[in-house]
Amino acid sequence: MKASLVALAAALVLVPAASSAPAKGGCPAAWKSGWQALANRIQAPVYCPTWMPNPLDAKIGGQYIDINSVHKDRSYLISFLEHGDAGSGDVHVNFRGYPGSTAIPTCTTVVPNGKKTIRGTTPCFSDAAGVRTAPGVKATVYRVNQDADQWHILLAWKHNGSLYTVSEHVITYRQVVKNLDRLFAGLVLVEPQA
Q1: How far apart are CA 2 and CA 184, in angstroms?
Q2: How far is CA 95 from CA 16, 42, 128, in A?
Q3: CB atoms within 10 A of CB 80
Q4: What are the distances in angstroms from CA 35 to CA 23, 60, 107, 114?
Q5: DSSP codes, 144-184
């Protein structure tokens, strides 16, 4: 009985609580300037979330920003991370965009094999496992991902000749899928300004 209570308590700690409901009408004011600056910088639309899993926010430049990277080809990785206290695990959400490309990118692989290391490439997102829909958008769910999305569930979709993704680190599979469904349903397109 005591072991069951300990297991239940541990399971409850591992499930991130949901923060406030998605905002209506656009990118939340506290987050908008960062997402607008990103769209302007890459001269392509980006997707701003209206909801994030607790305790994260989506303020680019805020306390939870982990990676804010834009490459020469205008592809980007925006990452938010909070290391869980008391062994609850990380809450980690990544947003990617590949302006002008709808192909799944390839990632470098390095596999130690005794004295000879095997090097190669593999799709960055693989093991398609269904689809998710939001108003006007249909995403493919990927369960095996590389690079910053390793150990994440990832949703990938195309818009206007570009590929976009959102992923979350897996702590408990069902909770992450619920979080991604809620996050995906609340995405708002932010167009670049001149």
Answers
A1: 39
A2: 19, 14, 18
A3: 25
A4: 15, 7, 26, 45
A5: EE-GGGTTEEEEEEEETTEEEEEEEE-SSHHHHHHHHHHHH
102 alpha carbon, distance to own chain's centre: 17
Q: Cβ of 171: how many Cβ atoms within 10 Å?
A: 20
Say what the pTM is.
0.83
Token couple for 78: 């925006």
CA distance 174 to 171: 9
Residue 172 near residue 15, CB atoms below 8 Å: yes
Q: What is the DSSP string of 123-142?
A: ESEEEEEEEEEETTEEEEEE
- Per residue in 70-95, pLDDT (tens digit) is 999 999 999 999 987 655 578 999 99
- Indicate the pairing of strand 125-134 with strand 118-123: unpaired
CA distances from 83 to 47, 64, 71, 122 (A): 24, 10, 26, 28
Over residues 125-149, the pLDDT tens digits come to 999 999 999 988 999 999 999 999 9
User: How far is Cα of residue 32 from the mean position of the Cα atoms in its chain?
Assistant: 18
